[in-house]
Specification:
Blueprint lengths: L3 H12 L13 H4 L7 E6 L4 E5 L5 E2 L4 H13 L20 H5 L10 H12 L4 H16 L5 E2 L1 H10 L1 H12 L7 H12 L1 E3 L1 H7 L19 H14 L5 H7 L4 E3 L4 E6 L3 E6 L10 H14 L7
Helix pairs in contact: 1-13, 3-5, 5-8, 5-9, 6-9, 6-10, 7-9, 8-9
Bound molecules: glutamine.
Glutamine binds next to loops.
């Protein structure tokens, strides 16, 4: 068995001179203020061990990684009928792209691009006031992470509400196609709050461990989804989790993963471990630059790529 703490330490040491690379997301003013000189990483194994390095206990804005948790909730609510509202194909375009949506009659390509995630949020809202839907998600994530201290950063949510013009455009567009049932301001209110979930690498790795362990968290004993559903959520992350960088991520890392513009990446080595990495500087397609490099190093040193060692 590889010494995972030694692997993390070596990755951190090698990447230290590069910390600060990439560009923090500046289209959300509150995220533009984040110090890019931070890097943290946590591995949580299915046999209950946790290994961390760097700023793994510093909370950050998980942004689009929240889409994995919302997808899990939506599938729990409406099951496979979710796929009438959103597709399962990689988009090959930017996370906030509008053109594709018109081409495809208001049905977003997948639940991880913004349009798809907004439609998924609309599904979760059925029968709830917006505030209740936010509460449901927060409770769910706290349950997954087994940690009541997970919070939503209201400043980030507000900042995005004030500047999220493209997301308003996407939601209005889908509403015109009747793929959004609730008022656009309500759906986006929930969506911006889910994106503003603030978590540490340690919390995130634990919250997502069920995806590495056939749907149940072996540490908390919480059963979350069936093994089949866990497998399918992982499939979606592999194909769509990094937007138009998904192919590149599969090529270099070879693990299902989901990125967020806060600089976090959550990844799954099925049957083995969940991993969270955070480094705020992003590459051109909006994925954490060093986060992806760190995961590539991890996969190479552990042989965890799902495509073989
Ligand atoms: N809240 C961000 C947005 O909607 C999420 C995008 C991301 O993390 N890729 O633009």
């Amino acid at each position: 068995m590889v010494d995972l703490q030694a692997v993390l330490d070596s990755i951190y040491k090698e990447l230290t001179p590069r910390i600060g690379e990439g560009k923090v997301a500046d289209y959300i003013p509150e995220l533009a203020k984040i110090d890019p000189n931070q890097f943290g990483m946590t591995i949580s194994t299915v046999d209950g061990k946790v290994y961390s390095v760097g700023d793994a206990a510093v909370p950050f804005s998980i942004q689009s990684i929240s889409k994995v948790f919302m997808l899990t909730l939506a599938l729990g609510k409406v099951g496979e009928s979710l796929w009438k509202r959103v597709g399962r194909e990689p988009s090959g375009s930017a996370f906030n792209s509008i053109v594709q949506l018109e081409h495809e009659g208001g049905i977003p390509r997948n639940p991880f691009i913004n349009a798809g995630a907004i439609a998924v949020t609309d599904v979760v809202m059925a029968g709830h006031a917006p505030r209740e839907a936010i509460g449901e998600l927060l409770r769910f994530v706290r349950y997954l992470a087994d940690d009541e201290s997970v919070t939503i950063d209201e400043k980030v949510a507000r900042s995005e509400t004030q500047t999220g013009y493209r997301n308003f455009a996407l939601a209005n567009f889908m509403r015109a196609y009747k793929n959004i049932d609730h008022p656009v301001e309500h759906v986006l209110g929930v969506y911006f709050h889910q994106c503003a979930l603030s978590m540490t690498c340690e919390q995130l790795a634990r919250a997502g461990l069920f995806l590495a362990a056939r749907g149940s968290n072996p540490v908390t004993g919480h059963s979350v989804v069936s093994p089949k559903r866990a497998r399918r959520i992982n499939a979606m992350m592999l194909m769509c989790g990094h937007y138009d960088g998904s192919g590149d991520f599969a090529y270099h890392v070879g693990l299902p993963g989901k990125s967020g513009v806060g600089g976090g990446i959550f990844a799954v080595a099925p049957g083995v471990a969940s991993i969270a990495v955070w480094s705020p500087g992003l590459n051109k397609v909006g994925n954490s630059q060093l986060g992806a490099v760190a995961l590539e190093m991890l996969a190479a040193r552990t042989g965890w790529s799902i495509f073989g060692d």
